[in-house]
């Protein structure tokens, strides 16, 4: 099986490349410099030339706060870029695995979010991802939209931010009223390859949206406590969201119900704390 990957320079993109090499999967990986997904003719050219069995879109505009000002840039990548991939994949009859986010929800639901719950994004990033989902669903034909959350395991994420801030702060204040499922990029990569294998089997017809995130649900404060477990500093202080003013509002409830992906693909929710300890051990923290 040959898989074409976009956004290869990002957290999930890098994890996909590492896992492909470990599992002996043939990939053609493009980072932003080698394939800008906003360039429709480049997308057509690269996908046609390599004729992959599956395309995985790991490219995205992910700067949540910056997106409030850079609306056009966010929509250009997350909506138009996704549309470009969907159009080419549809024309060539190639399944498209597209990644989306918990931030398409407003977080006001009492329980975990199901795939067909109404979306109502609170910020520009969430709206641009929601638009990307809509275009993929309308155009791609054979598509999987994998909604995930709170990704860590690459260069830029909450874990690295916390470790960096701990170098210069004895105390950190962390929001304790937003709950979600932290998810390791390696676990997302593994799930995407499992889906790719099943989706290319004859007769597969379970296209659609799937939720996948780590367990157990946790607040950002709880996540920070796990990052610094066993350390005396920094001292962590729980605060409400309005105690940490940022340009983009985040959903209070980001918990994704992951029973559909278990039922259809037999994929379990991984314990994110396991991946976190592995990452911290590697960094000798
Ligand atoms: N990070 C998170 O917490 C979460 C992420 N997701 C989703 O998961 C997916 C992967 O995210 P993640 O790996 O964390 O994100 P990253 O920001 O780590 O990676 C995204 C990559 O896409 C690249 N990119 C940006 N614009 C383009 C473009 N026009 N053409 C091609 N590549 C481009 C970026 O390049 P450059 O760095 O040069 O801009 C970057 O390398 C995304 O769809 C994201 O929305 C979902 C839930 C949570
Ligand atoms: C750095 C910092 C953040 N926070 C809060 C702000 C925010 O509510 C929360 C997380 O902040 P971050 O900016 O690291 O993460 P954020 O950009 O909100 O992460 C999101 O990224 C996008 C791409 C997604 O799709 C989401 O699933 C989610 O992972 O922690 C604190 O309370 N104290 C701090 O010192």
TrEMBL record:
Q: Which UniProt keywords apply?
A: NADP, Oxidoreductase
UniProt cross-references to Pfam families, sorted A to Z: RmlD_sub_bind
Q: What positions does the domain RmlD-like substrate binding occupy?
A: 1-283
Which pathway, metabolic or otherwise, does it act in? Carbohydrate biosynthesis; dTDP-L-rhamnose biosynthesis
Q: What is its EC number?
A: 1.1.1.133
What GO molecular functions are on record for this protein? Answer: dTDP-4-dehydrorhamnose reductase activity
Q: Does the keyword Nucleotide-binding apply?
A: no
Keyword NADP present in the record's keywords: the answer is yes
Its required cofactor(s), as named, are: Mg(2+)
Example of a GO biological process term: dTDP-rhamnose biosynthetic process
Q: Any note on cofactor binding? A: Binds 1 Mg(2+) ion per monomer.
Q: Which reaction does it catalyse?
A: dTDP-beta-L-rhamnose + NADP(+) = dTDP-4-dehydro-beta-L-rhamnose + NADPH + H(+)
Similarity remark = Belongs to the dTDP-4-dehydrorhamnose reductase family.
Known function: Catalyzes the reduction of dTDP-6-deoxy-L-lyxo-4-hexulose to yield dTDP-L-rhamnose.
* UniProt name for this protein: dTDP-4-dehydrorhamnose reductase
Native source organism of the sequence: Sneathiella chungangensis
Upper classification of the source organism reads: Bacteria, Pseudomonadati, Pseudomonadota, Alphaproteobacteria, Sneathiellales
């Amino acid at each position: 099986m040959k898989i074409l990957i976009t956004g290869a320079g990002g957290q999930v993109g890098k994890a996909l490349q590492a896992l492909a090499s470990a599992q002996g999967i043939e990939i053609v990986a493009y980072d932003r410099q080698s394939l800008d997904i906003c360039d429709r003719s480049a997308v057509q050219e690269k996908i046609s030339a390599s004729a992959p069995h599956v395309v995985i879109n790991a490219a995205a505009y992910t700067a949540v706060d910056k997106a409030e000002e850079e609306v056009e840039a966010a929509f250009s990548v997350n909506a138009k870029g996704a549309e470009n991939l969907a159009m080419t994949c549809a024309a060539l009859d190639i399944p498209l695995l597209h990644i989306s986010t918990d931030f398409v929800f407003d977080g006001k639901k009492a329980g975990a979010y199901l795939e067909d719950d109404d979306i109502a994004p609170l910020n520009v990033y969430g709206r641009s991802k929601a638009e990307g989902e809509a275009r993929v669903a309308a155009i791609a034909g054979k598509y999987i939209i994998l909604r995930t959350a709170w990704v860590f395991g690459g260069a830029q994420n909450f874990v690295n931010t916390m470790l960096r801030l701990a170098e210069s702060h004895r105390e950190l204040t962390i929001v304790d009223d937003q709950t979600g499922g932290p998810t390791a990029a390696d676990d997302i990569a593994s799930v995407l390859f499992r889906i790719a294998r099943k989706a290319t089997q004859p007769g597969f017809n379970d296209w659609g949206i799937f939720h996948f995130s780590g367990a157990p649900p946790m607040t950002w404060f709880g996540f920070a406590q796990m990052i610094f477990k066993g350390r005396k500093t920094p001292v962590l202080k729980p605060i409400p969201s309005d105690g940490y003013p940022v340009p983009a509002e985040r959903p209070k409830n980001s918990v994704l119900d992951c029973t559909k992906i278990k039922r259809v693909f037999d994929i379990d929710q991984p314990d994110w704390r396991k991946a976190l300890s592995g990452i911290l051990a590697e960094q000798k923290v």
